[in-house]
UniProtKB/TrEMBL annotation:
Location of the NFACT RNA-binding domain: 462-556
Gene name, Swiss-Prot/TrEMBL: rqcH
Name of protein: Rqc2 homolog RqcH
Source organism of the structure: Caldicellulosiruptor diazotrophicus
Family annotation (InterPro entries): NFACT_RNA-bd, RQC_Subunit_NEMF, RqcH_bacterial
Keyword list, A-Z: Coiled coil, Protein biosynthesis, RNA-binding, rRNA-binding, tRNA-binding
Coiled-coil features, chain-numbered ranges: 304-331, 390-440
Function: Key component of the ribosome quality control system (RQC), a ribosome-associated complex that mediates the extraction of incompletely synthesized nascent chains from stalled ribosomes and their subsequent degradation. RqcH recruits Ala-charged tRNA, and with RqcP directs the elongation of stalled nascent chains on 50S ribosomal subunits, leading to non-templated C-terminal alanine extensions (Ala tail). The Ala tail promotes nascent chain degradation. May add between 1 and at least 8 Ala residues. Binds to stalled 50S ribosomal subunits.
Length: 585
């Protein structure tokens, strides 16, 4: 992601226009890496985000809101003490480095005017946010480093100094002779030569320079080739940094953000593009969608892990009950032993051996068998012991069989959620699945206000809606709650219901409007049912279909579970994608 020095130089100009002469109203720290300054200017309040996140360091202003912790961290309290009510009087960049300095005018406790600075260093995992005074002494930093941890200690009272790694040349000031020397002394790729020697240049920007210079050689003995790269670099920087001729562009792939830049990059030809009037708006949307996508992935992984753990636990429980049923096969033997001991009670003498020999009245030839006994018990007590073992095993078998029925229901429910999780595309889909898991006790219930918020968000989620090639409406549930809604409340009795046969998946409804449904529509609905199931991308998938009036939900059954009859089955090959289907947005 090229939030490089070039992008920062463009953004700096926008920050100056929007924030200089603004007053700091509020300060928050939503997490360990990020601070938010609320700046009031000309009747409007803007939120300035400064994040030293190791993987996504960034700075921009936004109107989007985020929940803040109830107790402010220490660094946030120090910022409040020093900067609340302060006025922003300047914003500066260190050459083309990814270092930005925001200058504040504030009042001391005695009422004297003082100058303080926030210095933001965008250095990957070394990114940091400093608060320093007018003498450049560190008041505090969001990440502290001791003398033992770093040759450049970051502690209150220590003099602030620039990072020692800033040895690269400013590309706006470099001469052609210096530029040539980089190529003469290196056998690396041209883009690596640029990023290794010039400040503020990201790998993507360097690739763009080489592409625009139309350089395809691997050897740089030709001075004309190097001159072409040099001229292209200088020209691009002149138009972006000096003249401010930009076209902020956001790049996406299948709805997911990929990158952004201050100009439209020619090297990004395979992505969808969205242009913006200003760079900050582009950055704002990029990080909002990036965060949403990150939250989506994290939430999906959490739910996937929860479902898998419960499936594993239930599978183990299932095997244990199968084992109990296997063990119960000995129950009839124990009953037989008890019966034979009692039947031979008066014909058999007490012995000191650990078995007795009795006539087996259950055998055709009345043969003699040996029955193990416990010597410290009499024969009647041994018979009672065998009856107890018989009763215990039979009860365990009965309980195991009832347990297996419930386990199978739970497994079917969890497997249906697993299938829905694979098809989830929006955070609302995941929240619905999470709500189902909470209701069934697989996840601890969240706080009441969080639950209320979740319900509000779930209301935004609607079933997938398609139009068949014959003009019929086809609806597909995104989750089990929607499956129940579609089948039990939304659909009419003469609509057609479809579902993969004995395979977890979504409920599919064809709105018939009391018309006969053509075979083409039926096939398309079956294809959707197979795609939105665990059988996605499989061949010869059986899909059952029937009228909704033949679909019933058993009392107290889990969400999405139904029974049905009077059905027919259609066999389809699940599609690789549904791009060719007419989806209603």
């Amino acid at each position: 992601m090229p939030f490089d020095g070039v992008v920062l130089s463009v953004l700096k100009k926008e920050l100056i226009l929007e924030l200089v002469d603004g007053k700091v109203e509020r300060i928050y720290q939503p997490n360990q890496f990020e601070v938010n300054l609320y700046i009031y200017k000309l009747g409007k309040t803007k939120k300035l985000i400064i994040s030293a996140n190791p993987s996504l360091p960034r700075i921009y202003f936004t109107e989007r809101q985020k929940k803040n912790p109830d107790v402010a961290p220490n660094f946030c309290m120090i910022l409040r003490k020093n900067l609340l009510g302060a006025r922003i009087i300047g914003i500066y960049q260190e050459g083309l480095e990814r270092i930005l300095k925001i200058e504040f005018e504030t009042k001391s406790e005695l009422g004297d005017t003082e100058v303080k600075y926030i210095v933001f260093e965008m250095m990957g995992r070394h990114s940091n946010i400093f608060l320093i005074d007018s003498n450049y002494k560190i008041i505090d930093a969001i990440k502290r480093l001791s003398f033992e941890d770093s040759p450049r200690p970051i502690l209150p009272g220590v003099k602030y100094s620039l990072p020692p790694v800033l040895t690269k040349k400013n590309p706006t000031e470099i001469s052609f002779d210096e530029f040539v020397s980089f190529f003469k002394s290196s056998n690396k790729s041209p883009e690596n030569i640029l990023t290794d020697n010039l400040s503020g240049i990201s790998k993507q920007f360097a690739i763009e320079v080489i592409l625009r210079a139309q350089v395809f050689e691997k050897s740089f003995e030709n001075a004309n080739t190097i001159k072409r790269i040099f001229d292209t670099l200088k020209e691009l920087l002149y138009y972006i940094v000096e003249k401010g001729e930009i076209l902020p562009t956001l790049y996406t792939e299948k709805g997911n953000v990929v990158d952004f830049y201050a100009v439209d990059l020619k090297c990004y030809t395979n992505y969808s593009k969205k242009h913006f009037e200003n760079l900050n708006s582009c950055i704002d949307e990029y990080y909002f969608k990036k965060e949403q996508y990150t939250l989506f992935i994290e939430k999906r992984q959490y739910l996937q892990k929860t479902i898998e753990q419960n499936i594993k636990k239930l599978s183990q429980k299932y095997e244990q009950n199968i084992q109990k049923i296997q063990e119960a096969k000995n129950a009839e033997v124990y009953k037989k032993y008890g019966d034979l001991i009692l039947a031979n009670l008066f014909q058999t003498k007490e012995t000191n051996r650990d078995f007795i020999e009795v006539i087996d009245y259950y055998s055709e030839d009345l043969s003699v068998i040996k029955i193990p006994i416990e010597k410290d018990k009499d024969l009647k007590q041994n018979a009672e012991r065998y009856y107890k073992l018989y009763n215990k095993l039979k009860k365990a078998e009965e309980y195991a069989k009832s347990e297996i029925i419930e386990i199978e229901k739970e497994l079917e429910f969890l497997q249906s959620l697993e299938a829905l999780l694979e098809k989830s595309q929006e955070i609302e889909d995941l929240l619905s699945i999470e709500e189902e898991l909470e209701k069934e006790g697989y996840i601890k219930t969240q706080a009441e206000n969080a639950g209320q918020q979740k319900k509000k968000e779930n209301q935004k989620s609607k079933p997938h809606h398609f139009i068949s090639s014959d003009g019929f409406d086809i609806y597909v549930g995104r989750n089990n709650l929607q499956n129940d809604f579609l089948t039990l409340r939304f659909a009419s009795s003469h609509d057609i219901w479809l579902h993969t046969q004995k395979i977890p998946g979504s409920h599919v409804i064809i709105r018939t409007n009391n018309k006969e449904v053509p075979q083409t529509t039926l096939v398309e609905a079956a294809l959707l049912a197979s795609y939105f199931s665990k059988a996605k991308h499989s061949t010869k998938v059986p899909v059952d279909y029937t009228f909704v009036k033949y679909v019933k939900k058993p009392p107290k059954s889990k969400p999405g579970f139904v029974i049905y009859d009077n059905f027919k089955t259609i066999i389809v090959d699940s599609p690789e994608n549904i791009d060719n289907f007419n989806k209603v947005e």
